[in-house]
Write a structure and sequence with these properties.
single chain; about 325 residues; mainly alpha; 13 helices
Amino acid sequence: MTSYAPLISALVTLAMTSILINSKTGIIVHDIPNERSLHSTPVPRVGGIALMAGVLSGWALLMQFLTWWIVLPAVGLFALSLLDDVRNLSPQIRLAGHFFAALVALMGAGVPLLWLTPVLLFVVWMTNLYNFMDGSDGLAGGMALFGFGGYGAGAWLGGNEMFALLNFSVAAAASGFLVFNFHPARVFMGDAGSIPLGFLAAVFGVSGWQAGYWPLWFPLLSFSPFVADATVTLLKRALRGEKLSQAHRSHYYQRLVQMGWGHRNTALAEYALMSLAGMSALWGTGLAYAGQGYLLFGWCATYLVLMTWIDKHWRERQSV
C-alpha cells in the first residue's frame, strides 16, 4: 500500500482544489492584487489547503516512517500561514513561528551544535524564499514538482524507498495543484502552501544530507532556481536601501513576465531550468570532490549570465 502514497496525494489534491475553488471558501480567501502582484483580478488563494491535504493523505500510508519533528512543525506552519492568509498576521509573528518550527525540527533531527545556527538560518530562509517566489502562475507548484521529485530520486538511489516516497508524495501533490494553477491560474496556493513547502524543502534536504544520501550542496542546487533568484534579489534590494518587508516586483521571474514573456513562457523556461538543475545535482553526487566543485562553479556562472542578461534587457526596457 505504501507505494500508492504519491497517487493518493495527487488525487486528493486534485479533488480538494476543485471543491475549494467552487465553494464559498474560494470566495472568502482570495488574493487581492498589490504592488507585488502580476495579476489584475482577485484569484482564490486556497490551493495550499488542498495541497497540504494531499500531502498528508499520502503520508498517512507512510505514517510509521514519519518522524514527529517533521510532521508537527510542518502542520504548525500550515495552520499559522492559513491564519495569515485570512487575517494578515504581522511579520514579527510569522517570523517567530518560522524560527520556532525550524528549531523544533533541527533539535528533533539531532543536528550537531556546531551546525545548528547556520542550518537554522538556512531552514528559515528557505521557508521564506519559497513564499517570495510564489508570484507567477505555475511557478511554485513547478518547483515543488521538480525539487521534491529530485529529492525522491536521490533518496531512492541512496536505498531509502520510504524517504523517497515521502518526497514523491509532495511532488505528486504539486502535480495535482498545477492542473488548476498553470496559466491561466484559477487558484493560488497562498502562504498556507508556500511556507510549508519551503520548510519541507529545507528539512528534507538537511535530513538527506545527515543520512548520507547527498552532499550538503545538493538541496541548494536542486532548488537553485528559487534560491538564486530570491537571494540575489534580496541582496540587491538591501544594497539599494529598500525596505525589505515592502511588496515589490523586482524578482527575476517577475521581470521576465513584465518584459513580455508572460506567465506561461516564464513558467516553461523556469521548468527547463529546474529540470536541468535537478538532473545535474543527481549526476553530481557521483562525482569526485573536484568534479562537484566544477559543477557548482558552472551553475554559479550560468546564473550570473542569466541574471546579467535579464538586468540588461530590463534597463533597456526602462529607458525606452
